[in-house]
Amino acid sequence: MIDKSEILRIAECNRLAWDASAVHHNENPEWQKLKAGFARAEFSTFDATLTAILTDLPVLGQSVVQIGCNNGRELLSAMALGAKSGLGIDQSTAFIDQAYRLTEISGRDCQFLASNIYSLPEDTPRGFDVALITIGVLNWMPDIDLFFKVVSSLLSENGKLVIYETHPFLEVFDPGAADPFLPASSYFVETPFVSEQAIVYDESEPSRVPASYWYVHRLGDIITACIDAGLCLDKIVEYPHSNRETEYDLYTNQVAQLPMCFSLVAHKG
Ligand SMILES: C[S@@+](CC[C@H](N)C(=O)[O-])C[C@H]1O[C@@H](n2cnc3c(N)ncnc32)[C@H](O)[C@@H]1O
Q: What pTM value is reported for the model?
């Protein structure tokens, strides 16, 4: 159990690390691709799996809140699938700035809120039809139980939660290790991984940024936290494909295949 002041302290460290990393994200070719892409109404960064989940939900005509929206590319992608409105929440003001730049290019009517999810302002809009959490968000959360209670409070009655995340079991392996297939850390590790490297998705030379804290939340803990937050599970699927950084591609297409990512759909009961 971690107390609230420690949660806020860790979140603040992570905010500083993400803000300091933002410059790398709008200097790389991916940023140019996003700017060119969002000038087209149908452009989406979702892969086939998340596109199918949101199409079947359906996201069409729904109000969507994305927690940990980063530069807004996925909220804008949900809009391209027909979402009625979108609010992106992220505590990094540098990435929220990027989100507004992409939104302006897209001409979409998306809103963004620069806030720590653990200390949302009282006037935060609520009653959303869909809450979206995607790749690389859960591990930044020092307290997964409190996190899902806040997420649940953003949803309307019967509102739906969609998670499409990396699989926590993958955290046991280090793609940069001499033998990347040898377990490198325990699935049951309780302490966070601490890094002072810029948070980038490609293999560019990382610069030093303030320390950030990355937690491994076991699949059972994630599911239990959803249930404890008043969410009823509809579907959980584990996949053999990767939805994360390309350095993890080496774990795909194996005879003895690891789980690479998972999706979870739940509704507020
Ligand atoms: C890996 S990024 C999400 C990327 C997104 N899935 C995408 O593909 O564009 C994780 C985001 O979570 C945000 N974040 C981390 N801790 C947070 C917190 N306590 N409150 C709000 N946002 C947070 C970070 O600022 C970062 O932008």
A: 0.96
Compute how many other C-beta atoms are within 10 angstroms of the C-beta atom of residue 93. Answer: 15
3-state SS, 73-105, equals: HHHHHHHHCCCCEEEEEECCHHHHHHHHHHHHH
Q: CA-CA distances (angstroms) from residue 4 to 90, 119, 120, 152, 211?
A: 19, 10, 13, 18, 19
Q: How far apart are CA 170 and CA 142, in angstroms?
A: 19
**Domains defined along the chain, listed by start:** 4-268 (3.40.50.150)
Which atom of ligand 1 has the smallest separation from the CA of 72? 9
Structure token pair of residue 47: 């892969």
117 lines ligand 1 (CB under 6 A): yes
H or E element that contains 53: helix 48-56
| CB-based contact 162:132 (threshold 8 Å) | yes
For 27-45, the pLDDT digits (tens) are 788 899 999 999 999 999 9
For the Cβ of 91 lying below 6 angstroms from any atom of ligand 1, the answer is yes
